[in-house]
Design brief:
The chain is an alpha/beta fold and about 475 residues long. About 40% of the residues lie in helices and about 20% in strands. The chain has two domains: about 280 residues, Alpha-Beta Barrel (nicotinate phosphoribosyltransferase); about 170 residues, Alpha-Beta Barrel (TIM Barrel), CATH 3.20.20.70. The chain contains 18 helices and 21 strands. Helix 7 links the parallel strand 6 and strand 7.
Amino acid sequence: MDGANNLTLHTDKYQINMMYAHWINGTDGEGAVFEAFFRKLPFGNGYAVFAGLERIVEFIRHLKFGEEELAYLARQEENYDPGFLEVLRQFRFKGTVHAVEEGSLVFPNEPIVRVEGTIFETQLVETALLNFMNYQTLIATKASRIKQVASGDILLEFGTRRAQEADAAVWGARAAYIAGFHATSNMHAGMMFGIPTKGTHAHSWVQGHETEEEAFLAYAKALPDGVTLLVDTYDTLRSGVPNAIKTARYLESIGKRLGGIRLDSGDLAYLSKEARKLLDAAGLQDAKIVASNDLDETLIFNLKAQGAKIDTWGVGTQLITAADQPSLGGVYKLTARKRDGQYIPVIKISGNPEKVSAPGKKDVYRIMNKSTGLAEADYITLHEETAILSGERIKLFDPVHPYIHRYISDYEAVPLLKPIVVEGEIVYKLPPLEEIRSFHEHQLSLFRPEILRKLNPDLYPVHLSEQAWQLKTELIKAHQE
């Protein structure tokens, strides 16, 4: 396998060092359970959108130390024992992975991915898993926020040139599409994932001709189907839009229609309203107005409040870089270790209460109210619990303020963690991207609009079961003593 394409060493060195120390001490075969989650919602949003599962699965599918990777490890200053490198040469992932489905709405402090296997293999996958989950979930969440304020308008992902390298551009385009964007400018993403691609032309096209009118006409002759013209190279209202209207007349003469115009600078609210008047007066009511220029959900929200006549939004830098929050902050924590065939729950204690982990191998359920059909809360249980499956009355209480509680009995508990890999075999059929996109759209319909809104969203509750809460308090007390 080509070392440039092998992602097995897409990890931090301390993972390899811990694997080596386990091997030296003979503990590399001991069982472990890790859970990946995030502690705080990004962007002040009411929810996050899980993305990245497909890349996690593909990473695990191809996890193998090739000769280039082994030669590189042999040159490290740690001077790893050759026997360790031989173990790595034979290594294949034999663990079990459960995960939330892509496109799901997810919330803080609940397991999104659970990895079970030997400490050797569960340690190895941590960095890559978090890298894929953190970035793609962040972008999908940002895209969903933009979708919420766009009110049915067309959304185009235009972020490639500002993304942090090629992988970010391609997988970011995919994450945005999951969350409801309609197309991308990135041709590689279009080819890889089947995402529709859209594009107009650059200012350089206009600058490269003697006149703007000549540039527009030459472009329309070359690509007469669905022509959208960038009208702000010189003067949007006195030059750009009038020349676009002249080009529309040429298109009409050959039986075509002007697709629209694009605004990329200036006062987008004012310019779009004035451009709309000019287009309508010319009988071009069907010509769309596309806007770009560092747009995000706040700018789109404000432009719509000002009555901007914009039909399509091209969103680039602010989306693909998640400019107002460049990291999700997801973590991967050991929750149980295996001794003598039994899992022993473990806890991480911290001076920051929000960083104290919830111990034990756990499952997470979405509590659906049978009367309303809406999600009431997410409910985290220890893996061995059965009350939730039999429909018994359960107590929902806030894990930060446990005196805030209520009981619920008329519910359906929907398990969120699905088996993805079982003992090294991939058992989950990755759905087509269109299916993931539709799944996400349906997910939104299961939540109250107060949770989905952009400004001051209502807090969606995530509860621990009484047994999970009791286990956590017992381990905290034991460590204090």
